[in-house]
Amino acid sequence: MSTPVPTPAAAQVGESPRTSHIVAWAAWDWGSSAFNAVVTTFVFTVWLTGSSFAETGADVEAAKALHSQWLGWGLAIAGVLVAVLAPALGTLADAAGRRKPLLGVASLVVALSVLAMWFVKPTPGAMTSNVLLGITLLAVGTVFFEIGSVAYNALLVQITTPRTIGRVSGIGWGSGYVGGIVLLLVLFVGFINPDVGWFGVTSADGLNIRVSMLVAGLWALVFSLPVLLVVPDRAGTVSRRIGMGEAYRSIGRHIASLWRTRRATLKFLIASAVFRDGLAGVFTFGGVLAAGSFGFTSQEVILFAIAANVVAGAATISVGWLDDRFGPRRVVTSSLVVLVIAGSAVFALHSYGKPVFWVFGLALSACVGPAQSASRGLLARLSDPGRETEMFGLYATTGRAATFLAPAAWSTAIAIGGAQYWGILGVVAVLAAGLALFVPVRFPRGLGVDGRADVTPLVAVP
User: Fold this and answer.
1) Considering the entire predicted model, what is its pTM?
2) I want to staple 29 with a disulfide (CB 3.0 to 4.6 A). Which of 147, 176, 416, 455 is the partner?
3) Phi, psi of 461 (to 5 degrees)
4) Domain encompassing residue 370
């Protein structure tokens, strides 16, 4: 007896993707750079855990270490909330037949969280409360950003076809990197770098950073609007109202069904959780490694961040075409192989200094985006029609469940080697483990996972 292989909803649509839908959808990724690049990675968290929030006369290094610990705990709590809420909210959105309300609410909360960072000040006598306020806002923003990403990723199958999922996903992810470049340049030139920036803004009372958060919040809000206004929700879907309890029961039934009939999808979710945490570790610890082990100044770190985003954006957009031609499996595999090699080279050649980090650091950057984009496109191909948001909720949950791997491996490697540059071996180990889990997974034919020749609307598998 043959079993039909479910394909994404877009596989059943004969129309070509609309350029207006793709541009509007990718604008959300462009706007998300405000949270990813500016708030989480290069500006706000660096400022919040730096010397600005050490009380006068206090041990600066001890204060920085303590605030970094608080930051880690805040993000850990946010990760737990995402793991618990994301799949259930995705199920509710699928049941209602609408993803955009979930995306709209999440985008608004993220923007408001960033705007509220204006109130975080390095005020003497109130450093602790302000640091905790900043971490709380960051945690709230993280939860809703991840929930919004679930709905946003699920919209991918509504604006594309089986033959264009890879390039459209790449355009979106690449737009995020390009948006990060533009916003970082604006903030760096206008507020962060000069002694007196635009509109007379200075670093007194952290004004340059706080104004940057206002710009970032407005940036995120404005660029979240196109997808909400232009891209339609699923048409012709009969909605049904369910509660949270039923949503979790539905998830349990879905996982059990995947285990019985489509075990490869579960194996992919596990493998991708591991290698995606390694991919996140590349950017999370890249700036720390550049400054701590290769002697980059703060200005050089920002310049490297801009260069890394340029390379990552260009690579992600261009490799999207290879994704559609040769399949996301090959893109993910080859990207992970290069990442393992480049990361090992950073460790082995560290004594040669900054040139090594520039060359191999940019090589790492060139592979992170393609691997992330292809992974997203692969899951879109595997998702059952009408359950895409739930599947991406599981994707978020499994990813969050593995978020301890790269940080733990980084710290363990440093403890073993006794120097910071050893940490890159920990990240490489996580990437290698994800690669080892991913390669043996065998996906059903007919979904385009292994290339364009594999794309058909529906294939019977014996």
Assistant:
1) 0.77
2) 176
3) -110, 125
4) 17-233+249-452
